[in-house]
Amino acid sequence: MLTPIEQNGAKRYGPADVQIIEAVGRMRASGYSEALGFTVYDTLIYKRHLEALVHEEVEVMMERVAGEMGTDDAADLLEKAVEPMRDLVAAMRAKLMIAELQARRAR
């Protein structure tokens, strides 16, 4: 999932890649260890589902703005919404996670 960027003959990671690396490090520090079977390959669960989500998001967006704005303007609009969408997805995921854990405890 990480995509290094070639700059002046050196490979560097962009801000999103750094956030991913830091998040995996924090997960490790919180107890998601390889000793328990958690590996970086578990992040592929997120990648698989997020790819489908992003594909559907862009499809809906492009359908809604078709004829209203060009592709560049639509891309700019999506870029402006990245942070709010990140917060929305994180909040909804947390809510769903808590509900799922409560349901499992109740069984």
SSE layout and pairing:
Layout: E1 5-7, E2 10-12, H1 15-29, H2 43-65, H3 71-80, H4 82-106
Antiparallel strand pairs: 1-2
Protein architecture, described:
The chain has four helices and two strands, in the order ββαααα. By secondary structure, it is mainly α. A two-stranded antiparallel sheet has the order 1-2. It is flat, with a radius of gyration of 18 Å. The protein has helices at 15-29, 43-65, 71-80, 82-106; strands at residues 5-7, 10-12. 0% of the residues are buried. The mean pLDDT is 92.
Distance between the termini: 36 Å
What is the element string, with H for helices and E for strands? EEHHHH
Counting DSSP E segments of at least 2 residues, the number of strands comes to 2
Q: What would the principal axes of the Cα set say about the shape? A: flat
List the strand order in the largest sheet: 1-2
**Helix/strand/pairing class, anyone?**
mainly alpha
This entry's quaternary arrangement is single chain
Low-pLDDT regions = none
Q: What portion of residues belong to β-strands?
A: 5-15%
Rg, nearest Å = 18 Å
